[in-house]
């Protein structure tokens, strides 16, 4: 327990409040402020910039040093030596699998890749021009209507089956969203292919032609999945935990995570990067956009730059940049006009005083946006792919939450509305 204490004094109150201080295995100590409620006080932290909302042993981030660890393993080492499904196992179980455990895990995921045939009809309710995220958020929420047999959140086996179903079905659903939008038939999963390759097959395959694997692109796709797999208590993961704290079913909780991810300040950034590059349109216009990004009276921001937690560099971005170079070389499109704008922006932001001073480095979504565009993924699918990748993080945190005693999440507020007054009765 706590061997350190923080002491808090407040003007006008005689008492000195002694608050326990806890240390994790790494990272900043935390001050336990729970006793303050009983004293008629709340802590105030809009945006939760100083709040540790839970205990967790899944992922560790040191934003200042640019460190990201899953189960203690640096993201760079996982990206180099592991793959997405092995990282899924690590996030869910806290340890890397043995060769046998990995094989069993991969085989079990493969058994769940198809979605219930009835779900195909569900898509027909959407307009063809609907944003794929709006389809995905609805369809994933609807999974709870199809898979009743794994909804007991207090049963560890049910939680595990749910995790398998989500990991396996998200690529299928993501690809279905795309196929629906272009009016092509859904492609069934192919379990002879690796996870990422199977996703590309469901995106680009069709019944008239054999799908041809491109190992460089499949590897890049797997890396995008792996680098987005988890990121501690970000907005969408916190949303999943909060939704889960009420006892809501896991599929509904994941749908809430997808909704939170959608915004351009979070997962929507990869799509926003491409929208921004299109808006800039020509290298000659870059300067004008840089001026706007620096203007405090203009809400425009350079999408794909900056991060709430990383104040040095985003370690995922480093790996992604390397993959980005490999993909562009493989496809021979280094001279694509939009990619040229991206490269120039990257260079300016790394040198310009405004960005350097504020430590606004390119983040993972800057490079993943460029790779996805190069692979030929339509822009409106970018955030869908982020959601697919992050599902393992969400379900791992949801499962961790339910594996130990817990409480419903219920933040309080600093009330600034009218004081009590009587309803006018004439
Ligand atoms: N372009 C221009 N200025 C920026 C940017 C940007 N992208 N990001 C931050 N700033 C400025 C901001 O105006 C402020 O300046 P000043 O101190 O003069 O007022 C300063 O930098 C600090 O910004 P902040 O708003 O306090 O930072 P934050 O931690 O609240 O926001 C962020 C973090 C990621 C929301 C923000 O950097 C941003 O909007 N970036 C663009 C969107 C983006 O790429 N998001 C994806 C993040 S990575 C994927 C994920 O993990 O979800």
TrEMBL record:
The active site is at residues 307, 365. It comes from the Bacteria. Gene3D superfamilies: 2.20.28.60, Citrate Synthase, domain 1, Cytochrome P450-Terp, domain 2. GO terms for biological process: tricarboxylic acid cycle. GO terms for molecular function: citrate synthase activity. Pathway: Carbohydrate metabolism; tricarboxylic acid cycle; isocitrate from oxaloacetate: step 1/2. PROSITE patterns: CITRATE_SYNTHASE. This is Citrate synthase. It comes from Amphritea japonica ATCC BAA-1530.
């Amino acid at each position: 327990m706590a061997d350190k204490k923080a002491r808090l004094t407040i003007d006008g109150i005689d008492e000195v409040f002694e608050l326990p201080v806890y240390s994790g295995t790494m990272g900043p100590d935390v001050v336990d402020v729970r006793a303050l409620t009983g004293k008629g006080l709340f802590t105030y932290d809009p945006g939760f910039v100083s709040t540790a909302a839970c205990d967790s042993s899944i992922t560790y981030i040191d934003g200042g040093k640019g460190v990201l660890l899953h189960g203690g393993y640096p993201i760079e080492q996982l990206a180099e030596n592991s793959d997405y499904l092995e990282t899924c196992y690590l996030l869910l179980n806290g340890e890397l699998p043995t060769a046998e455990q990995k094989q069993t895990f991969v085989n079990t995921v493969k058994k769940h890749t198809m979605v219930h045939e009835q779900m195909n009809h569900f898509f027909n309710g959407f307009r063809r021009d609907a944003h794929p995220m709006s389809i995905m958020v609805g369809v994933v929420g609807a999974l709870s209507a199809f898979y009743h047999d794994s909804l007991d959140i207090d049963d560890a086996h049910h939680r595990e089956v749910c995790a398998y179903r989500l990991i396996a079905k998200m690529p299928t659903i993501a690809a279905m969203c795309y196929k629906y939008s272009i009016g092509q038939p859904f492609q069934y999963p192919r379990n002879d292919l690796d996870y990422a390759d199977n996703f590309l097959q469901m995106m680009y395959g069709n019944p008239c032609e054999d799908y041809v694997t491109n190992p460089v692109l499949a590897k890049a796709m797997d890396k995008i999945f792996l680098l987005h797999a988890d990121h501690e208590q970000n907005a969408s993961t916190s949303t999943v935990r909060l939704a889960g704290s009420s006892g809501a079913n896991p599929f509904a909780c994941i749908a809430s995570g997808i909704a939170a991810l959608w915004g351009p300040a979070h997962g929507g950034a990869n799509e926003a990067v491409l929208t921004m590059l299109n808006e800039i349109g020509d290298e000659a216009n870059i300067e004008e956009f840089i001026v706007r990004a620096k203007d405090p009276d203009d809400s425009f921001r350079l999408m794909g730059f900056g991060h709430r937690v990383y104040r040095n560099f985003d370690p995922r971005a480093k790996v992604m940049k390397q993959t980005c170079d490999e993909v562009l070389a493989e496809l021979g499109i280094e001279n694509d006009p939009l990619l040229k704008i991206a490269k120039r922006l990257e260079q300016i932001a790394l040198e310009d005083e405004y960005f350097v001073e504020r430590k606004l480095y390119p983040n993972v979504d800057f490079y993943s946006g460029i790779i996805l565009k190069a692979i030929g993924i339509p822009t409106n699918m970018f955030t869908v792919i982020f959601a697919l990748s992050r599902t393992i993080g969400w379900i791992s945190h949801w499962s961790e939450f339910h594996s130990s005693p817990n409480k419903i999440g219920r933040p309080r507020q600093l009330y600034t509305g009218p004081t009590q007054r009587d309803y006018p009765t004439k």
